[in-house]
């Protein structure tokens, strides 16, 4: 499904606590690093490969009050960024809540656990920044990402019945049971 076909509002997932995060084990041959000056074009290229979107790093990330280089993470194969995630904050969520933002993996590296690793690194960064819980927003059709978020301890956050129904459909596609009646 194309990004333009997504349903709004996006699906919300929450991780109730950041106190019990697992150890971060980097996939063999890859290394974790934070944003460095000059990385904007690499971030933009990675986001375009991962999502099919053109996004300007300065506009979307660097110009935000919450931006700090250590909050924009990359997993690299040598010097080449293969995955990214932001340990972010959004005013819509409570102050103690981090926001997992812009998790993207170059499709050439899919299936290697990079989405899990970079997301976990971002969650650990949030905890270092004093956040106690985390939230993210995703799309119904990002099934591989949703499976990864479940592995990381996120759960659906759906108060409206229409959103609960969307989660039920996602559950059927993933062969997982959640958002059941009763």
UniProtKB/TrEMBL annotation:
Keywords: Acyltransferase, Transferase. It is an enzyme of class 2 (transferase). Its EC number is 2.3.-.-. It comes from the Bacteria. The keyword Transferase applies. One of its GO terms (molecular function) is acyltransferase activity. The keyword ATP-binding does not apply. SUPFAM superfamilies: Acyl-CoA N-acyltransferases (Nat) (SSF55729). Pfam families: Acetyltransf_1. Residues 30-181 form the N-acetyltransferase domain. This is GNAT family N-acetyltransferase. It comes from Cohnella soli.
């Amino acid at each position: 499904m194309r990004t333009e076909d997504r349903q709004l509002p996006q699906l919300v997932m929450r991780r109730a606590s950041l106190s019990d995060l697992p150890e971060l084990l980097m996939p063999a041959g890859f290394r974790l690093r934070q944003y460095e000056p000059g990385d904007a074009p690499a971030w933009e290229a990675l986001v375009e490969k991962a999502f099919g979107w053109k996004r300007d790093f300065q506009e979307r990330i660097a110009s935000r009050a919450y931006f700090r280089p250590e909050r924009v993470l990359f997993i690299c194969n040598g010097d080449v960024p293969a995955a990214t995630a932001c340990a972010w904050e959004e005013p819509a969520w409570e102050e103690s809540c981090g926001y997992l933002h812009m998790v993207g993996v170059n499709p050439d590296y899919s299936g290697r656990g990079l989405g899990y690793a970079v997301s976990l690194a971002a969650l650990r960064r949030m905890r270092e920044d004093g956040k106690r819980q985390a939230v993210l927003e995703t799309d119904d059709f990002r099934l591989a990402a949703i499976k990864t978020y479940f592995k990381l301890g996120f759960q659906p956050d759906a108060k409206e019945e229409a959103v609960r129904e969307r989660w039920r459909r996602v559950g059927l596609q993933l062969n997982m049971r959640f958002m059941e009646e009763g």
